[in-house]
Amino acid sequence: MKKLRRSLTAVLFLCLLLSGCGMFDVDVEEPAKEEEDLIVVGFSQVGSESVWRTKNTASIQEELTQENGFFLIFANARQKQENQIKHIREFISQRVDYILFSPVTEEGWDTVLQEAKEAGIPVILVDRKVDVADSSLYTAWIGSDMTEEGRQAGLWLENYEKENQLESQQIEIVVLQGTEGATSTIERTKGFHQIADAHENWVILEEPYADYTTAKGEEVMDRLLDTYPSIDVLISQNDDMTFGALQAMDDHGIKAGVDGDVAVVSFDAVDEALKLVKQGRINVDVECNPLQGPYIWMTLEALERGETVSKNIVVKERVYDQSFFSGR
Ligand code: GZL
Ligand code: ZN
Known about the structure:
The chain has two domains: about 5-140 and about 290-315, Response regulator (Rossmann fold); about 145-290, 3-Layer(aba) Sandwich (Rossmann fold). About 45% of the residues lie in helices and about 15% in strands.
């Protein structure tokens, strides 16, 4: 019945248009699907703390469009869990078809996700994960293997140590961690330590949190530079914090990057950071792919067809080191 109504609407729309403006060669926009035909998705996003997050939001908004059959209700949580819990409760009262959210941190979701389950609304996690007792509280998680990202940073440092014959020297490392309790922070730290802990000459001086923002990255890196006179390596868990840390190093008259005083390892690999890799200000950038929109679209379409989807859907990504630009 719905399909019949839609095609009648389209024909009527076309007639009105052509009769109104004659037989011009206009490309007739298909009228957006009737509101009630659309799949309503409530999306609570972490915030807009980083370039990566902005790209992630854009990727999802570009796929969950009315043309693709969706009505997207977007909410920005400004990096606060209480805002996300409020969003989810609003989505439940609006009786959306799906709840999509990237949990700012992993703990504290059991109650509100139980409410979504009792309301019969499937929950899709994107990017970050939740630590809940009952994994049936969400249908699927779509994101990156961030433990592997952390390992890649460690493997690059192993190679750097070999290439510069540093195996017998003490390598002093500082780590700018992202938001405390976030999956990306937990897993990147875990992955890096899986490699670092095998090297007793790698000394991790301090691993403070800097919340994935440029301002915090600069502030924390400034304090680290004031505290530790001989930092050899910075591991920074996203490019936005790296931008701030580079500013702090400039202020301290310290050369960052290739042939510098401090080697810089970053994560996300956003365009602005890749330019700095090319310039040698950042030695290596471990990509975290923000383009999760298509994966989410495909997952929702499969669920709409009544198909089961895998619990964990991992997106593809790579590492951008100096060889990427020198073609070696
Ligand atoms: C990674 C994502 C992280 C990014 C940061 O999947 O959770 O959060 O690395 C963002 O830029 O703030
Ligand atoms: Zn200082």
